[in-house]
Specification:
The protein is α+β, with helices and mostly antiparallel strands. The chain is built from eleven helices and five strands.
């Protein structure tokens, strides 16, 4: 399956070199179900910019090496949509599909960034994207990321580690909203989602006030 996928990607970008391929989205976050698409991040050499391609139930998020590095550093030239998903790299050890030997050292350098700096920048990206989503439409499936991030913050406060762990009650809230976003159950969460988004804004402001930003 992996070889078939890699051959398909190489066929789409015959003049580029595959550097990195890994699962993102629900698979990266450990919350996939039967309805989940497969989100796959692809990093290419000899390629410009970044694009999103849909292949049936596979979504390819394709970046040049330069744009991928910019995303991981939360460069403002990268849209908040892509910056907000920079944390999908945290689970790469279990979701790696392909890594070219020429990119090993650079990937390790990217992974070993300052965790508090990454956390602050990731919070900003998620907040910016969350606010934009609410302005566009209060009824969107992707709002579940607010509960996901809220859980990550609680876990950080408990352990001192910023990772993809989402403890209770946030995991159950996240999954309940994710499965019911388009019905009355999902609607019942909207006020709480807005309150938790505001909590994230204030939490990040406190981190900055405490000298961490």
């Amino acid at each position: 399956m992996k070889n078939q996928l890699l051959s398909q990607i190489e066929g789409l970008f015959p003049t580029s070199k595959l550097l990195l391929v890994y699962y993102g989205g629900s698979i990266a976050y450990g919350i996939q179900d039967d309805e989940s698409d497969e989100d796959i991040t692809v990093v290419l050499d000899n390629f410009n910019g970044n694009i999103h391609l849909n292949l049936d139930k596979i979504d390819l998020f394709v970046f040049s090496k330069e744009r991928f590095i910019q995303r991981q550093h939360f460069d403002e030239s990268i849209t908040s949509y892509h910056r907000a998903s920079a944390d999908n790299l945290m689970s790469i050890d279990s979701n790696l599909i392909y890594l070219d030997s020429s990119f090993v050292d650079e990937l390790e350098h990217i992974k070993n960034c300052d965790s508090k700096e990454f956390m602050l920048k990731h919070l900003k990206a998620q907040i910016d994207y969350g606010k934009m989503r609410f302005e566009i439409n209060q009824n969107l499936k992707s709002h579940y990321h607010i509960f996901r991030l809220r859980g990550m913050i609680d876990n950080y406060d408990e352990t001192g580690h910023y990772n993809l762990t989402v403890p209770e009650p946030w995991y159950s809230k996240m999954m309940d909203y994710k499965h019911n976003w388009d019905n009355k159950i999902g609607q019942s969460y909207l006020e709480e989602l807005e309150a938790e988004l505001q909590y994230l804004i204030e939490y990040r402001d406190r981190m900055i006030d405490d000298g961490l930003g």
